[in-house]
Structures are given as structure tokens and as C-alpha cells.
């Protein structure tokens, strides 16, 4: 697989990421750089660390804000569809490089603690579960993601 995580350079952040991050229309402007908050969100998603332990192992970064600030912006941007817009734009830009000759479909079936809208009782797992399906191209780059319940009904 040719996918490697790389560090975001300053010019990549300015050109590719910042146009998607919304600016506050009301209230006061944020004291914190949206690029730093985005880097922290990417670090959290790559490592899978807990929100409270977010700043333990980010090298060369002395955060001027708390993990709650990062979580607040993550939830806000998820609700606004910022990450979905970034993903679809990335796929549109990279459409010539995607290997669509071979598509891989994989899924995970995991227990949910709180009843989600797309969860159902699974006797084999003895609890409510949710099924996540991911489709990747031949190089392993995700091209689609969804839950099974949405497509089966």
C-alpha cells in the first residue's frame, strides 16, 4: 500500500484545508489558529488516543488551548459537514489517480453502548450493534463509507 501519513506543511494548510474551515459570523473571532486545532484533530483520529490525553505525544507542539477546545471544534465541524466536504473534494481532485479497477469492501460489526438510530439487536453479539461498511480503491484509499442499516431498509 502506498498510503503514508505525512505532516501537513504550512502552505498545504493554507491552500487545501483553510478554505473549508468556516469563519465565525457572529460573536468574537477565535483566539486560536484553526490550523493548529485541525492538526490536533488529525492527530487524535490517526492515533486513536483519548481526548483527555491529546497533547501527551504531539512532538514540537505546545498547545495554547485545552483538549475541550479541540473537541468543541471537532463536534462543530462534524455537524457543519466540513470533513465530508473535504473528503468529497479530495476524491474529486484525485479521481484520475484512484485505482477503480479493484475495489475492496470491508465492514465491522461492533457493539453500541447507547442505542444509535442505525443499531439493531444482534443475537450473536448479545446486544445492539452497528455495522460500518468501507469501500477502498486498489491502493487502500477510502472512496465510500456508510452504515448497512441505511441501505438495507
Write down the overall geometry.
globular
Total helical segments: 5
The overall number of domains is 2
Distance between the termini: 35 Å
Low-confidence stretches at least 5 residues in length (pLDDT < 50)? 1-5
Number of strands: 4
Q: Please state the average pLDDT score.
A: 78
Secondary-structure element pattern, one letter each: HHHHEEEEH
Radius of gyration: 18 Å
Largest sheet: 4 strands, antiparallel
Strand content: 15-25%
Based on secondary structure, the structural category is alpha+beta
Give the helix proportion (percent range): 25-40%
Describe the structure.
- Strand 3 (127-136) and strand 4 form a beta hairpin.
- Helices cover 35% and strands 18% of the residues.
- Strands 1, 2, 3 and 4 form a four-stranded antiparallel beta sheet that branches.
- The model is unreliable at 1-5 (pLDDT under 50).
- The longest helix has 14 residues, at 34-47.
- The chain starts with 9 loop residues before the first helix and ends with a helix.
- The radius of gyration is 18 Å and the shape is globular.
- The protein contains five helices and four strands, in the order H-H-H-H-E-E-E-E-H.
- The protein has two domains: 10-20 and 31-93, no CATH class; 104-152, no CATH class.
Amino acid at each position: 500500500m502506498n498510503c503514508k501519513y505525512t505532516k501537513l506543511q504550512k502552505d498545504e494548510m493554507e491552500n487545501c484545508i483553510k478554505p473549508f474551515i468556516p469563519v465565525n459570523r457572529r460573536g468574537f473571532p477565535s483566539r486560536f489558529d484553526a490550523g493548529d486545532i485541525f492538526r490536533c484533530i488529525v492527530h487524535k483520529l490517526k492515533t486513536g488516543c483519548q481526548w483527555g490525553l491529546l497533547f501527551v505525544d504531539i512532538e514540537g507542539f505546545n498547545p495554547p488551548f485545552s483538549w475541550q477546545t479541540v473537541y468543541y471544534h471537532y463536534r462543530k465541524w462534524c455537524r457543519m459537514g466540513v470533513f465530508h466536504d473535504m473528503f468529497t473534494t479530495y476524491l474529486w481532485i484525485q479521481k484520475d489517480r484512484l485505482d477503480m479497477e479493484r475495489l475492496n469492501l470491508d465492514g465491522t460489526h461492533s457493539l453500541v453502548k447507547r442505542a444509535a438510530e442505525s443499531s439493531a439487536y444482534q443475537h450473536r453479539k448479545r446486544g445492539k450493534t452497528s455495522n460500518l461498511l468501507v469501500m477502498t480503491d486498489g491502493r487502500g484509499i477510502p472512496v465510500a463509507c456508510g452504515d448497512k442499516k441505511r441501505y438495507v431498509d
